[in-house]
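Review this fold:
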Amino acid sequence: MDFILPLLLGFFSAFVGLLAPGMLNMTAVRTAIEQGKKAGYLFATGAASVVLIQATIALLFANYISKNLHILDNLRVGAIVVFFLLAIFFFTQARKKFKAEGKVKKGNMFLIGIIMSSINMLAIPFYFGLSTYFTANGTLVMKQPYISLFVIGASLGSLSIFYMYVYFANLISKRAKFIASNINYILSGLFLLLGLVTLLKM
């Protein structure tokens, strides 16, 4: 159970973070529609593979800070800031007019997935904030092999959500606006709640 929990935490974190339709998800959808599901799955696999690096950087940074007790409070403050910013981001996304568009390009879709996922600026702060929250609550132990298991879980969670978008590409493309608005409101509320809970525990 000790080894399963960090895997599930990583999976859950990635799945929730990528649930709302965004550029990566909708690119996977459009790729599947225009070039076939095989191309969509290749893009999804490339995009998910980058999460291994992004989550690793986030957790190593959180791990370093957690070992320095004099800046542990700053770590919690950082998590609170990240949660509130994510709440604002998702709320803004829900309020603005959503365009169900993705950037589909010709070429090696696996490589394109890697490139597009690499420029996702929210990934590292997102995993940093959640891993900090889990560590502060004693849910996640910041040492090996738990860090690696969390990272593997995050990559598998990303792969699952991207594959889901590819598999249901036609349905999602028709209902993307409705899905985006509702899921973004839910995610905004979730991160606002996490921020408030962390703030109150301080």
In short: The chain has a mean pLDDT of 79. Residues 4-201 form one domain. The chain has one domain: 4-201.
